[in-house]
Structure formats: C-alpha cells, structure tokens
Request: fold
Amino acid sequence: MAVGTGAGLLDEAQPQSVFKHAIFDQYLIRFAVMTASKLNPKHAVDGFAGRGRHDDGSPASSEFMMLAAQKAKATTHVDLFLVEKSLADYRKLDGVANEYRARGANVQTRHGECGAFLDEAIAGAAGPACSCSWPPAARTWRGIRSWLRCG
Reply:
C-alpha cells in the first residue's frame, strides 16, 4: 500500500494545505508590511518551496506567496526567495516563477538544500534598508541557532 507522496499526497491540495494557502493569501503580505514597515523591499523566504503549482493547475504554497506579493504590489514591494530540493519540483517551480518574473515580480529560485542558501537569503534581506541586528556570526544556520539560544 502506497503512503505519503507515493499515494498521491501532492496530487491535489489537502485540507491542511487549503488552510495554509488561505493564511498566505489573506495574511502573509499584511504581516510582512506590518512587521517590516521600514524595509523596502520586504523579503519572504521559503526553504521548502515545492513545485509552485499542483498538477491540476491550482496554486500550491509558493505560488500563493507569489500571488500575495503581486496583490500587494500597488502598496509595497516583496521579494521572494524560494528553495526546492527535488530537481523535478524545482524545474516546475522555476517555470511558475518565470510567469511572475515576466509580470515584474522579483522571485529568486534555487535548487538544493535550503541550508545551502541561507547566507544568500540573509544577504538579500540585509540590503541597505535592512534594520536587522543579527551579528555576523549569526549569518549561518549554526550561527542563527546559537544566536537565538544565547541572544
């Protein structure tokens, strides 16, 4: 008996995904605008981005992030940094991202382990408008974990 993704878990949106997508759609950009009001652009990172869109054409989590960023475009700018480990899913994700890039969105996609791109994601968010106060030692995954425990 197949279980997990082999049983079709990712073929269509599951109830937990529908709930998460509603949060992304209704809350993600409002949260980013509120908590990063001094930053422009704002940055959102998804280290487990998936393929972006379900096989039936409906948006998956990372496309919901792209849609939310697009909706907020009139009032704020949100850059997205999306990482996906599976090469097949990454290729699909990058194709979806290309659609949003063509409409002017800044969506960066990377293939591989999310930890391998943490420094790049942080550096992108730590541009001249960044007000974060992370010490240089916290700019690695190990450093962030250590800083959060001891900071």
User: Anything to note?
Assistant: Confidence is low (pLDDT under 50) at residues 1-10, 128-138, 147-151. The chain has five helices and three strands.
